[in-house]
Amino acid sequence: MRKKTEYQKFKERALRNPQVRRAYKEGLDDLRIAVRVAELREKRGLTQTQLAAKIQTSPAVISRLERGDNVELKTLLKIASALNARLSIEALPSRA
Known about the structure:
The radius of gyration is 17 Å and the shape is elongated. The chain has helices at residues 6-15, 18-43, 48-54, 59-66, 73-82. The two termini are 26 Å apart. By secondary structure, the chain is mainly α. The protein is built from five helices and no strands. It has a single domain, classed as lambda repressor-like DNA-binding domains (434 Repressor (Amino-terminal Domain)).
């Protein structure tokens, strides 16, 4: 078994705090959504600017979303429609 790095030890300690753990999980969810949107946009052959034009917003909004910032349901619905995709949201029981 490999020895834990200082980062791994720090992360374990930090995640014991329920507020930190919740923020960490929310950040991961936002990042998963961001990556999926970027992948789908690229698969459809669109730039961020082109997608922004399709949903009548600025390229900065798409850029922020694809970085995991400002992930809003209203925007995701518009993006899904523009990308000819289906938006699926699921409520699951918490593991923590």
